[in-house]
Amino acid sequence: MLDALTIAVAATALALAAWCGLAAYRDLPTKDRHFIGMAVVSALALVQLVVGIVQLARGERPGEGVAIFLAYLVGSALAVPAAGFLSLAERTRWGSATVAAGAVVLAVLEVRLHDVWGG
Amino acid sequence: MTGTGQAREGAEDTAVAGAGRTRLVAGPGLLLVWLYGVMSVGAVSRSVYQILTDFGSAPLAHTLSAVAAVVYAFITYTLVRGGEAARRAALVCCGAELAGVLVVGTWTLADPSAFPDSTVWSAYGMGYLFIPVLLPVTGMVWLRRSRSTGA
After folding, report:
1. CA angle, residues A73, A74, A79, in degrees to nearest 5
2. Which value does ipTM take for this structure?
3. Does A90 reach chain B within 8 Å, measured CB to CB?
4. CA distance B121 to B103
5. Measuring CA to CA, how many Å separate A25 from each of A20, A89, A102, B123?
6. Which CATH number does the domain housing residue A50 bear?
7. Is residue B38 domain-resident?
8. What are the Cα distances from residue B55, in Å, to B51, B60, B100?
9. What are the pLDDT digits (tens) for A8-67?
10. Taking a C-beta distance cutoff of 8 angstroms, is the pair A37, A90 a contact?
11. Is B44 in contact with B72 (CB distance < 8 Å)?
12. Does B15 reside within a domain?
């Protein structure tokens, strides 16, 4: 369950990064449709946070320790919303570029999260 | 490249705002402050965890991680705060950061045995997609350019 979510979050995050990167390249600010995309990716990351906590509650233990695992889960859930919030105040291509960077950060966090869980 | 010109004009319009300080978080500055923010969170949490759990196993690496964390947090703060003094302080810190990445990066490659655990700046920040070595360079370019637009 967690593995499937990790792959889903990483894949949608990369797609979001490409989409917002394209918007930045075309000199466009983030639009409503981009925010819907961010909401989808953020919702998946939130589900992952809940599933991760449930697995911890069940007594399963990540290879690199509970604290690191939780830190990466929370960071993953916050990365895209934080970048999206910043892009609201910057109505230029640089807002889009920031969201793209945020999505890349999320994809990297997912790779690390996979390592942390596996040990 | 016409797009960049437009974006820069937009940044110049908003460059002087609030309390008369030069806004550094505008246009490309937003992307910069986001990346510095991410690096701050990453470096601070990493170094707090390393120091709390096993400082003794690699004191040099963990001390350098803490130094990196402080530098990142301070640059993020100065960028968000804005103003000429903050801009100068950030410029100096970007230089210190670049020097740190280059020295620590070279050191980790030359004498790996001194670093049983890695730091943010190990191998020029390879574990962080080389962002640690690219960020101060872009930071300094942006901060130097902000001077002419802000004054």
Report:
1. 105
2. 0.92
3. yes
4. 9
5. 8, 19, 16, 31
6. 1.20.120
7. yes
8. 4, 9, 20
9. 999 999 999 999 999 999 999 999 999 999 999 999 999 999 999 999 999 999 998 899
10. no
11. yes
12. no
Give the range of the structural domain holding residue A97, as residue numbers without chain letter.
2-118
Residues of A in contact with B31 (CB under 8 A): 94, 97-98, 101
What SS3 state is found at A56? helix
Identify the burial level of A43 via C-beta atoms within 10 angstroms of its C-beta, where 0-12 means exposed, 13-18 middle and 19 or more buried: middle
pLDDT at B7 over 50: no
Instruction: Quote the mean pLDDT of chain B.
Output: 83
DSSP symbol at B21? E
Residue B112 is assigned to a structural domain of this protein: yes
Among B71, B39, B68, smallest CA distance to B51 is for B68
Structure confidence by residue, pLDDT tens digits, B61-73: 889 889 999 999 9
On whether residue B57 sits in a domain, the answer given is yes
Tally of domains in chain B:
1
Chain B contact residues (CB < 8 Å to A): 3, 6-7, 10-11, 26-31, 34-35, 37-38, 41, 45, 49, 129
Closest-approach residue (CA) in chain A for B27: A94
Token pair in block for residue A44:
């998946």
Distance, C-alpha B22 to centroid of its chain: 19
Structural domain that includes position B59: 24-150
